Amino acid sequence: MLFAASVFSFTLSMTSCQDWLEMPSYTDPDSETVFQNEDMAELFVLGCYRGLIHQEMYYHLGMGETAMHSSEDGSTNNSKYRICNYSYDPMVPATVTTIFGESYRIIESTNLAISKLKGMNETAKRNALLGEVLSIRAFCYLNLIRIYGDVPAVWTPMEESDPNDESIFYPRRSSRDEIYDQIISDLQQAIEWVPWFKESGYATAERLSKQGVYALLARTAFYAGGYSLRWNLETNDPATLKIARRDDETRVRELYQIASDACKSIIDRKENALTQAQGGMSGFQYLWYNFCQRNFSATDGEMIWDLAQYGANTNSNFGVLAQPGSRGGTYGSRKAMQFMLPTYYLSFDKNDARRDVTCTSYSVYFLNKGAADDTFVDVGTTYSCIMHGKFRISWCVEPQEAAKRNLNIPVLRYADVLLMYAEALNYLNNGPTQAAKDALQEVRDRAGIGSLPIPTTQQGFEDALVQERKWEFAGEFMLRTDLIRMNRLADEVELAKLDLKNLSKREGKYANMPIYRLYKFQVDGQQYGDKFLAVDYIDLTDDAEVAVAKAVPTNKNEYAEYQNKLAEIVKAHGIAVEDGDKWYPTNMFEAYTSTFNGNARKAVGFTGGYNALQIGAIIYKNPTGYSENGNAFPNWIEASDGSDGLYYGFQKNCSELLPFAAKSPGHPMIDNPNLTQHPAYAQTGE
Prior knowledge:
Elements: E1 11-12, E2 21-22, H1 31-34, H2 38-47, H3 55-59, E3 68-70, H4 79-84, H5 98-118, H6 124-148, H7 166-169, H8 176-193, H9 197-200, H10 210-225, E4 228-230, E5 242-244, H11 249-269, H12 283-292, E6 303-307, H13 318-321, E7 338-340, H14 342-345, H15 355-358, E8 359-360, E9 362-366, E10 376-380, E11 386-388, E12 409-413, H16 414-428, H17 434-447, H18 458-473, H19 479-485, H20 489-505, E13 516-520, E14 537-540, H21 543-550, H22 559-572, E15 583-587, H23 595-602, H24 617-620, H25 668-671, H26 682-685
Antiparallel strand pairs: 1-2, 3-7, 4-5, 6-12, 7-11, 8-11, 9-10, 13-14, 13-15
Helix pairs in contact: 2-6, 5-6, 6-8, 6-10, 8-10, 10-11, 10-16, 11-16, 16-17, 16-18
């Protein structure tokens, strides 16, 4: 049965120093015992946080937003690559399959907690716990709706339901607008009950405080009032599929006002602020470095809510899948499963401190055979394998084991509050108010691009917010659906495809893009907590310098003289050259494995493994350049038959939501005969 109660074992670490909390399995007979007192009830509530963000949320749905892309090994037909490219199939299944069941598992436990807590004597603590579970349930429904659209609404625990009522065990899709209105009302009530963070006694932002609920309310109101893929639930006719807001314009405006007021409440409280530069780091690097280090006292001012991941039992793959890749050595061998589109990397202003935090043009590799006494380096990459950097392994604390990196999952940040506030004011006032401009300015100032002009028209300001959100939140798995609620996804996908082709051919705004980059040879620190940010490089634009760099010798006896010539180029760019410094050229448009790039790395000491990289082979063995690929687009940009390589499955008024999996038992369409499929997939999914 779709919503049959499971046996739960709740474990959750809520602070970096708190022991794991473990509860006995929950069964119907002992549910009354669990809620006999507030301390036991609190343990149950803490357990409701566990598993809130499943791996599918960031491994499958964290891409496709024109910033980050899948680099999974093997075929381009695996589920991660297909979903990243909007190619869905409920029968493979090439859709997300676990988020649905896990979300309703948590909804069932929150429904039980809500019911039992309402039966307890009212105290401040009971109310705070009730506010938490209402908010957790709201978060689950928000995720379900933004992935699947209209979903079943279940508000009562199984033990209180009529076992003879088929609609309880096999519920139909419910109106998303009705669900949104219910959870928004729940969040508004929860705000009255949960404490502000500084009054809560919580050691970290791993539990929902008042500002966390306010921020979640704002995010939910934006989705409730924004655009989404809709259809006629009664007929399930594919012809009725369209991107639209709800019909009630007055309610839409009210929702944007709710979002604005919620953000303003956080801003006016002045407990939260953007993390600023310290210790030689930009504010953005200081935020993410300390977040990876679990130094939450340095990040909780900005990190309003993050999901605890620590210890043997509650520890996800989040920190393993989105990182620059490492081969051997202290960090072990972990492949990067995601890469950043080169057009996204190149979109940053030269002064934007976020680029080299979010994107790494290096990976950790060894010089020779990878033995313990080998030299490990941060090796420069090409445009086709720029990797994600906010959650790099070297910044983390030493893990219990390779797959458990102790890296919390960020959910809500103060930067998001500022940009949501700016967006709401822009909508409500038909253009940006001064407060809206100030909010955007604050985010840009921290990034180092405060001098960029701020648009004054409503459309121009919204355009700026779309780009700002990409620069600020890549890798935090909300951008894809943010573009949908803003009715921007189709346009952004088409622009990303065009930009990548223009980059490949070096046309349009990429016409004068330097082909060759001179990287500085960089030994990796091989120590957890290493603060290293980016490999130094020089983009070569002078023809004479390019000619020198291209003349890579293949005779080892000529390497020293070659380094002397490169040193002169480096000095000419105003960079001091110290004893022992080495540099090597890279053709950024060729594959990492090209003959030229391989020979260039040999010239600084690479021997064994010099032509491999810790990222999927479908990426690092492919070039970016059209001419470098024999006057044809690489297949990850365009297929040989002229069809799309990037986002090849995208269809407007279809791909904005995913179908329910329908292959085997355990999938929604198999387990629940009353569910209807996404209309575009109804023939294969019902």
